[in-house]
Design goal:
This protein has 254 residues and is of the alpha/beta class. The protein has nine helices and eleven strands. The strands form two sheets. It has a nine-stranded mixed β-sheet with strand order 4-3-5-2-1-6-10-11-9, with helices on both faces. The longest helix has 25 residues.
């Protein structure tokens, strides 16, 4: 009980009272096209450096970052040759394309003095570490950026599914899905000016409406394990940092 005539002290507000606390560990999902810059395929070194700087800034704040990169920028150039291929062979080619992208991103980060580890689901010891869950978590705890390559090593699974699987295995707080648009829409905003953007949407709504955010397997896995997804525009500078700080960016799927 307070003494008569004394007022209760004002409650002490946390330092981040005006914003939600940031995440401890995130899984960043990049498309292969993100590394191509303005080109249709291939790797744009300046674009890779820009992305690396943004990721490095996030790590500098103490947030642990895992990355999964697609391979579309490389495999798209081989698409014509792969049309008549066996699906399993074509998928394995796509996995190897993600290894090339992972090495490119790792090299750009290392040149900035940021320690990285490329961990491949397909063993290739001269190029990358084999993926081992406990080792990946240890790397993250030591402040290294872990880049997960070669998908899940299994055909018929997309890199979206690989990103979800790795995020669950390393106990990431969120999947940050980088795209060309600023969130999830009811239809393609690049084709339809009247497309409606969702600030928040549930997993079931994404599945029911057939929204092409991530493949259905990925969405179902996130739903079953209550792993949130943030879809945001990668082309806006600083958005990776904003997402990691839990700022209101893009669309939250939960």
């Amino acid at each position: 009980m307070r003494s008569p005539g004394r007022t209760a002290p004002a409650p002490k507000l946390p330092d981040c009272a005006e914003t939600m606390p940031g995440y401890k560990r995130i899984l960043l999902k990049l498309s292969g096209e993100a590394l191509a810059g303005g080109a249709h395929f291939g790797i744009d070194s300046e674009r890779v450096k820009q992305l690396s700087r943004e990721v490095a800034d996030v790590v500098a704040t103490g947030i642990e970052v895992g990355v999964v990169v697609g391979g579309g920028n490389i495999f798209r150039g081989l698409a014509a040759a792969a049309q008549n291929m066996d699906r399993v062979t074509a998928d394995h080619m796509g996995m190897l394309a993600t290894v090339i992208n992972s090495l490119a991103l790792s090299d750009a980060l290392e040149q900035m003095g940021i320690p990285t580890r490329v961990m491949s689901a397909i063993e290739m010891h001269q190029v990358a570490e084999p993926y081992i869950r406990r080792r990946a978590i240890r790397h993250l705890e030591k402040g290294r950026i872990v880049i997960f390559a070669a998908g899940t090593s299994n055909p018929y699974f997309s890199t979206d599914t690989a990103a979800t699987l790795r995020a669950l295995e390393i106990k990431a707080d969120v999947i940050a899905k980088a795209t060309r648009v600023d969130g999830v829409y009811d239809k393609d905003p690049l084709k339809f000016p009247d497309a409606k953007k969702y600030e928040q949407i549930t997993y079931l709504e994404v599945l029911a409406q057939g929204l092409g955010v991530m493949d259905a397997t990925s969405i179902a896995m996130c739903r079953d394990n209550r792993l949130p997804i943030i879809v945001f525009n990668l082309n806006t500078n600083g958005n990776i940092m904003r997402v990691s700080r839990h700022e209101l960016v893009g669309t939250l799927i939960h």
